[in-house]
Amino acid sequence: MPTSHDGENPLEKRTEKRSDAKERRTGVLSAKESLSDKKSDQSLRPKMLAEYIGQARTRAMLEMSIAAAKTRGDALDHILFYGPPGLGKTSLSNVIANEMGARIHLSSGPSLERPRDIIGLLNQVETGDVLFIDEIHRLSRIAEELLYPAMEDYVIDLTAGKGHATRTMRLALPKFTLIGATTKAAMLSNALRDRFGFVCRLDFYTVEELALIVARTAGILSVSCEDAAVTMVASRARGTPRIANRLVRLVRDFAQYKGHEVVTEDIAKQALETYQVDVQGLDPTDRRLLTILIDSYGGGPVGIETLAATLGEDSDTVEDVYEPYLIQCGYIQRTPRGRIATPSAYAHVGRTAPGGQLSLNLQPGQNI
Ligand SMILES: Nc1ncnc2c1ncn2[C@@H]1O[C@H](COP(=O)(O)OP(=O)(O)OP(=O)(O)O)[C@@H](O)[C@H]1O
Ligand SMILES: [Mg+2]
Known about the structure:
The chain has three domains: 55-201, Rossmann fold, CATH 3.40.50; 209-274, Helicase, Ruva Protein, domain 3; 284-348, Winged helix-like DNA-binding domain superfamily/Winged helix DNA-binding domain (Arc Repressor Mutant, subunit A), CATH 1.10.10.10. The chain is α/β, with parallel strands linked by helices and 368 residues long. It has helices at residues 10-13, 35-44, 56-72, 89-100, 115-124, 141-153, 190-193, 207-220, 227-235, 241-257, 265-274, 284-296, 304-311, 315-328, 343-348, 355-358, and strands at 79-82, 104-108, 130-134, 155-160, 167-172, 177-182, 198-201, 224-225, 262-263, 332-335, 338-341. Helix 9 (227-235) packs parallel to helix 11, helix 10 crosses helix 11 and helix 13 (304-311) packs across helix 14. The strands form four sheets. A five-stranded parallel β-sheet has the order 2-3-6-1-7, covered by helices on one side. The two termini are 21 Å apart. It binds adenosine-5'-triphosphate and magnesium ion (MG).
């Protein structure tokens, strides 16, 4: 599996606000958190940096900054984590609080709609605390404006009364660390983004990193797994720890049902085939997207709206849910004229690529 990210920087790409994509993929490969993920989550979430696998650059930067802040006895600078679902944004935020020995207050953009929501939250914060706001791109305008001085100068401006009688009162806040997480960095306003000291993109994980996560999860869940089975599960987990953990649970259930105590490579293979997860971690919808692109539109270029309509999904869902991993695999490229299927996409769905496709000679993950 390619390990580089898709070459696209959503921070630079779009600044307009868009409606959230509703993820319709409900199968085992959804990167969104399911109820059963939530249940097993507490035991599986890494607690300290040493247990947090992968994201080497981000981890190294955090290690340094945490050590420096602790030496100074200071709060850490505000941090924004962005990247596709299930890559470990929430986990890393908890790890940071643990490493700092700080309390963490968990909140999310949609729950901070009214001024009193954000004021109430900031009121609870004590010196050095971490304030975690998930889905920060969904903060209301009012909440966002209240946050600016809180982030910058650790003060909050309260207004009372109406019209001529309006009075503003400035309250000092203790020094805290705001950690924002989002899957849609492009939807954040520039003003909010610029107030974070660190802006970190979490990348898809390599198979080797995922194998470490799979082995760790199998250990915590007391599942006996052969090394070859660990690698197989890791290589089909779409570069995403949440999916890796879910596949471990599914493979465990399959083995148990079939009466096997140890998950061998063969058992893992049978289990993954039963759940329709192919060798590259694609599910039937991903494969349908590729075959539509190839069979109905000659491999592209085709506009996202047309492609989404043929697939029966909305374009936001295709762009935010299906495409990132297909681009990461080097199967799709975004071009100014629309999406095109790469020669490896043709090979993956058993079609022969026309000569013209090969002449593009793009690397996996590279866009024009
Ligand atoms: N680096 C990692 N090492 C080990 N396990 C990890 C790592 N990152 C994530 N996980 C596992 O994957 C699960 C999903 O991670 P997490 O909930 O932090 O993702 P997220 O990026 O916050 O997703 P979302 O965008 O949906 O909120 C966690 O419960 C944890 O068990
Ligand atoms: Mg999260």
